Sequence to fold (794 residues):
Amino acid sequence: MKTGIAVAMAAGLCCAQNPEAFHPAPTNVWGAAYPRVDDSGRAQFRVKAPDASKVQVNFWGAAKLDMLKQPDGFWTVTSAPLVPGFHYYTLLIDGAEVSDPGSHAFFGGGKDASGIEIPEAGATYYLPQDVPHGEVREIWYNSKITGSWRHALVYTPPDYDTKNSMRYPVLYLQHGAGEDETGWVRQGHANFILDNLIASGNTRPMIVVMAYGYAKRAGQPDIDLFGKPFGSPEAMKAMQDMASAFEDDLTQVLIPYVDAKLRTLSDRDHRAMAGLSMGGMQTFQVTFDHLDLFSYIGGFSGAAGVLGNQKLDTKTGFNGALADPEAFSKRVHLLWIGVGTAEPVRMHEGLLRVHEVLRQGGIKHIFYESPGTAHEWQTWRRDLKDFAPRLFQEGAQ
Amino acid sequence: MKTGIAVAMAAGLCCAQNPEAFHPAPTNVWGAAYPRVDDSGRAQFRVKAPDASKVQVNFWGAAKLDMLKQPDGFWTVTSAPLVPGFHYYTLLIDGAEVSDPGSHAFFGGGKDASGIEIPEAGATYYLPQDVPHGEVREIWYNSKITGSWRHALVYTPPDYDTKNSMRYPVLYLQHGAGEDETGWVRQGHANFILDNLIASGNTRPMIVVMAYGYAKRAGQPDIDLFGKPFGSPEAMKAMQDMASAFEDDLTQVLIPYVDAKLRTLSDRDHRAMAGLSMGGMQTFQVTFDHLDLFSYIGGFSGAAGVLGNQKLDTKTGFNGALADPEAFSKRVHLLWIGVGTAEPVRMHEGLLRVHEVLRQGGIKHIFYESPGTAHEWQTWRRDLKDFAPRLFQEGAQ
Fold:
């Protein structure tokens, strides 16, 4: 194999000039000049594919951008201004969907995809600031449910290592479908959001556990979601099998592991769960099945009873937990639902409907709309920024 | 952007049958059936590129494998048996060098490249076992040297969180050129190697700090290594500028930060440094410049005075530290050098020559050869397995 030293030449990297006020994107690998962005949010892409006949930039769910071949064998294109925040993308090279070597990889869509960060003017809450920083820890635990080693990320607050007798509340925070346990840190910057919120004094120092959201029971065949039409009974069944195994792993293995391994406050008054999209659905399933374990609940662009023709029935839904609004709001300190105004209509209207049903039923909750953002990380960063300060406070809501 | 739920369909994943005793590689993303490996170490690759005219698998430094187009638009190829261990690779699609969507990305060659793990029969020392596990922590520190936030990974041993008054020795462990601070965990499995060594009772529980090996001084222009011939004076100058900034960042910022933040034993008798390839060169530079800080030194396939026509002079080299062998071996508890027997001749012979010069000079040291492995991670995993048990022990060597 190639020597590391020879590889150095490809890695030393550098430093194109930016005559048009374009700068390398913050999501680039060290020294890569492309992709690059300007202050209006336009992005320029460039990739070497000398023998290709067609190359496109593929922003997921948006129109593809045709790249233009240059005499030097590189293909280039400049986008229209993009919404600030983090956007997944891939390249389509003669029909192959691949990542851009200039960008770091971010796990999404079931693979290490490319991502580009478009800065939001004035928004520093998700960037590293000169404040005390917590740590993100990787843990591995051997799950009797799945019969496998599982990996999770854990954020510990800045003073965790110095206040040796302090115990902390815990937020379980889940990624979306196609993503994994690294999403909330890599794409979401949850650690920086918490650092900044804690430093401002408005948010209680807490531990955040980010689990791997896929699971199948030990000895069971692989869960095959391929080739099943979206929303079909077969696809929903496969999803539910996975959700059920995930629920048991989380409640029977991971929570006890975290409570044994870290200095947690392990009663329900000091345990929260939230998640985005699929993670929001998982949150509603897990928390309403286990109100003995959780007292704070957050659904970010995802919650049970959102999609299709389902309508939440506050009398019978969620095991009847909502039937007595007063009892519910004593038991659940926070029920929080958020959505971006630019999300797909089905998601936006579905969550508006949940909000309306809860309101009509007199169920105390918070409903938050992120202006101008879609089903993407800028929405979920804002969600966390609104959600976290409401956790583990006296008189929450 | 695409909804997370729709993305789920691409991510649920699964489960091809393996009629030829091929199994998905352990380095694959969840559920990807390809690439896959058999017991002889052969690897099968498969990628969708319906409109491409030429697709190859590019094992770095080895011959490229031509893939064959199938009627379904997928390209496939089966390799000859590969040496066990971790191998970087990319795909060449009509001249574009890109990663394989079926494999996880590993930072190497200055980008998120693909990697494939070929199991080594009987070798479990770098795999997760049912033993107590340490944690890998991500830390960020604000460096006055580079004027930027820097990221490092830190391994803490299994009992770190329960033995609240215990202090631990520290190993600084560096990646190679083109890689980054994640390499020793993602590719090298350093955390599992330490877990297993500590569990066996032969290795003292220690903290391992893995720093980002690139640096440029605050306010300095980008270091441009592009387009400079390998080994040229300009390339060496650029490398040295970077090494110098790295040395100052490590010794003036990171070490004090780690000693303040973690429960370390902070004297030189309890601090080691090792690195692979470029990291080995950095180790020799940093430790011999700072013998007040370090007393254990390891060069894994890399050490000062190895390459080109340089020959180590034990009287004048390393600031004269070797001139008095007896004094040196009292001061430096371990000098350890390793190389794979299948490495490029220049590297293998260069390190044999260092070994021989040290031997002739009467300088106490350990020289280790990894049988049959090249300039790659299986060599460095074995190095760490031999090196770590020798650290921080009475009567080391």
